[in-house]
Amino acid sequence: MRKGLFLAPFGEFSDPRRVAELASSAELAGWDGLFLWDHILADPTTPVADPWVTLAVVAALTERLRLGTMVTPVARRRPWVLARQTATLDRLSGGRVVFGVGLGDDGWGEFSAFGDPGSPALRATALDEGLAIIRSLWASAPVHRSGVVHRVDSPAFLPRPLQDPIPTWAACRWPHRRPLQRAAALEGCFPIFGGGWPPPPPPPDQVGEVRSALLALGSAEGADLVVTHASWAQPQSTRSALRGFEAAGATWWLEWLGPEGISPSSIEEVVAAGPPS
Questions:
Q1: Is the separation of the CB atoms in 218 and 180 below 8 Å?
Q2: How many CB atoms are located within 10 Å of the residue 249 CB?
């Protein structure tokens, strides 16, 4: 099971240089990946960075870390722009990008403030149509589609990303089953469990249920299953939790690093200490 970092590029980490420094420290300390929240807005007093610009800096200053967004709400991004951004970042990083996707929500007004689709059903349609467009453009195929949300008549995109395709992980709120169907057709699933902030470790039996449900829906045996919790908030349970996740079929565990409950200096200490064993 690989171990990565799950960071909101908010506050002090809205400075891409701070995130790049953190990523360099993470690579030296033995972490396997760095994944950034993708938001347009947060609390009105909170600075927010664009994840794609920030990840480009990270890609240029690291050599091994997997990197990506967790997760990008495709409904508020233009799919053809995302296809260009992700393909360019994949080439810049030497083929290290992971593309995390999801519905997103309107908790900070990130849809309603800009007149973007508000209903979950319409966001789900935009997500599915957008993914089909993005994956066709990654494959350098012409796209001719007339959907509910997107109408595209485009020649093939070049250059292609280095990965074929870029691994795509779909978020889903457990135990909702419909999003699992989307995840089962992709390269990974990021189940979101309830329990508050910072998130407690999800019960391993629920992680195992997610894996079983994905396999029943046709997911590949080697597809990624990604879980997250804050080990710094529950250090006494971390080792047993990690063993339970791996036994239940998780392939990635992400250390949840705020944005609440932990200071930037403490985040730097957690990263420099390396992943728990």
A1: no
A2: 20
Return d(Cα 41, Cα 264) in angstroms, integer: 20
- Residue pair 228/250 in contact (Cβ under 8 Å)? The answer is no
**Mean pLDDT, rounded, for 73-101:** 97
* Domain spans, the chain: 2-273
DSSP 98-158: EEEEE----TTSTTGGGT---SHHHHHHHHHHHHHHHHHHHTT--EEEE-SS-EEEEPPPS
Residue 176's contacts (CB-CB under 8 Å, 6 or more residues apart) are none
Look at residues 188, 159, 162 and name the one whose alpha carbon lies nearest to residue 33: 188
Amino acid making up residue 51: P
In this prediction the pTM is 0.96
**CATH 3.20.20.30, domain 2-273, yes or no:** yes
State both tokens at 195.
């329990």
Per-residue pLDDT tens for 32-67? 999 999 999 999 999 999 999 999 999 999 999 999
Between residues 69 and 118, the one the model is more confident about: 69
Residue 42: half-sphere exposure toward Cβ, Cα within 13 Å:
16
